[in-house]
Fold this sequence. Notes:
Layout (H helix, E strand, L loop, with lengths): L3 E5 L1 E3 L8 E3 L2 H9 L3 E5 L5 H10 L2 E4 L23 H16 L4 E4 L1 H9 L4 E2 L2 H4 L18 E5 L4 H6 L3 E4 L6 E2 L6 E7 L4 E6 L5 E4 L14 H13 L1
Parallel strand pairs: 1-4, 1-5, 5-6, 6-13
Antiparallel strand pairs: 2-3, 7-10, 8-9, 8-11, 11-12, 12-13
Amino acid sequence: MKPVIGITTFWEKKIKPDRLYNLVSHNYIKSVYLAGGIPILIPLVDDKEFSKEYLETIDGIIFSGGDDISPLSYGENPIRHVQTICQERDEFEIEFFLEALKLNMPILGVCRGMQLMNVGLGGNLYQDINSEIENSLGHFPQGTSPHNLYHQIKIDEESKLFDIFRKTEIKVNSFHHQAVKKRAKDLKETAWASDGIIEAIEHEDRDFVVGVQWHPEDLTIHHPVFLKLFRASREFSKKK
């Protein structure tokens, strides 16, 4: 049987202000089933027992991108560049991540999802790259299509990411203004942009806990090589 892959969602009120929706980009769903998995959406709920039942149902999980993680989650007050946060999502996903980690469940963190992994394990973030890092690259080209490759990254040869792509340099898209600053002790850096921004992390002691700062789900149609990342997480899900 194909592995069941959970995908986290976010709350949205803009469609109808008097209603709350759980949403996620369809590109996550498409990437999972193109890689041979069965996608299932994980709603944002505040019932811990309910979320544990989801962990019993799925074989792997993708923590999707989205709003900024509140700096309060890592002991800081927000600077003015932090505009969109969801405390409920932060709390739910950190708890969900830590429970999945206990189970050695295959985990893929995408953009915010990678940052969440770091915060959940005790690390912190640059709240805004361009205002905190001198001579930083552009990392959020708002007028660029999501499937366009934007900058290069270097990959550590001693990493799962290198095992997946078999290259020390690849081009990726980029849509983030926050990034990993102090890395959590259980994680290691595995890829970097030329300005030093950490572009990928993985857990030191788990089979497959990988975070990437770019958005591979938006690249899999135009750049099928990025399906390798979803196929790799699927393979570890089958071994769970």
